[in-house]
Design a protein that fits this description.
0% strand; 65 residues; mainly alpha; 4 helices
């Protein structure tokens, strides 16, 4: 999770396919449950475009309640 948050905001409008894949893999490596503070940090990385569906990985984090 720290790597995903440290890489900052996602932007599908100018991100390469490789960048989107890399960030998606970072997010899929997060194991829950996450704290409320961690969840806020993850959500803060997303803008209005949800970065080519990477938000679905956020919604399917393992162990989130």
């Amino acid at each position: 999770m720290q790597l995903f948050v440290a890489d900052g905001s996602l932007s599908a409008w100018d991100a390469s396919e490789g960048e989107v894949d890399r960030r998606d893999k970072q997010l899929k490596a997060v194991f829950g449950p996450v704290t409320a503070e961690e969840a806020k940090a993850l959500v803060a990385c997303f803008g209005p475009d949800y970065c080519c569906g990477v938000a679905w990985s956020l919604l399917s984090l393992r162990g989130c309640r």
